[in-house]
Amino acid sequence: xxxxxxxxxxxxxxxxxxxxxxxxxxxxxxxxxxxxxxxxxxxxxxxxxxxxxxxxxxxxxxxxxxxxxxxxxxxxxxxxxxxxxxxxxxxxxxxxxxxxxxxxxxxxxxxxxxxxxxxxxxxxxxxxxxxxxxxxxxxxxxxxxxxxxxxxxxxxxxxxxxxxxxxxxxxxxxxxxxxxxxxxxxxxxxxxxxxxxxxxxxxxxxxxxxxxxxxxxxxxxxxxxxxxxxxxxxxxxxxxxxxxxxxxxxxxxxxxxxxxxxxxxxxxxxxxxxxxxxxxxxxxxxxxxxxxxxxxxxxxxxxxxxxxxxxxxxxxxxxxxxxxxxxxxxxxxxxxxxxxxxxxxxxxxxxxxxxxxxxxxxxxxxxxxxxxxxxxxxxxxxxxxxxxxxxxxxx
Length: 395
Description:
The protein is mostly helical. The protein is built from 17 helices and 2 strands.
């Protein structure tokens, strides 16, 4: 790889010297940020340009001293990068692409999030951002095609369009919004904006586009594509994408089923404080799925999610306290967590709270309260609650 990068830099320097020789007998206008050149005579070689006179020559890559993209402000002449790559050094640019390097900063493409442009050229996202903010010509550095709107602009357009559709009563979880659906054309436009932002490396856009692929909303349903987009966002640390990718691995949708990989992605999202992932991680520890079973670790993650108001985790934590799994048995604490989840409308917590009132565990025995909570769970279709509600009526 060192040899490849040296070759690329040699090609850039050789082309620069060649351009100087060809213009030795002509007076050219001064390039940006450079001093005026002195015309060369036939017996006098053109002067070797100083570092500040090489706005188009890319210096060695700037290695970051900490996590994050290289600082392009330290690259001389970066203000004219778009002009430099406008077809004048095709050989060097092609060599960079073939070596899987960003043709702007000469770093490996997999070092940082990538931006794929409509013209099919790919660069690091931060390099394209630099061109947008610092260059007067907003063009692809290789083919001079006009750059699309930025990822944030496209994402905002997509979300505005999508929320506008939802206000028209499109159900958020309605599957397969395909051709013929009343909102298909509008949703397709939102998805198009979303894809444009996702192609430019926008993590949230990638996650949401993955969701659209998974649900078949505005585009054909494609679990494999959904997993691919979730992974791109997950690798950028987007917690919701990490959770969704874990679900794909747990269910074997679009990827080879793997409880171990599911656990890994759940853990990455949970460690960022995402309550849904924390609840799922608690379950994985509880049943020993993808990891060695541990009631103590299950309680740890359930509690983190429960304290954020996650009703599923609150109910599960109540059960762990009720039966003394991973913690000392305590009906009072179990009642506390069941009640917290029941008030949020969690049917299983409502049914379990009914049991505690019926048996007088952690609370005073109260058949009226028991019947009320059984009824609340039964109204949500909980079959066990329906059975126990009937038993109270017949008592």
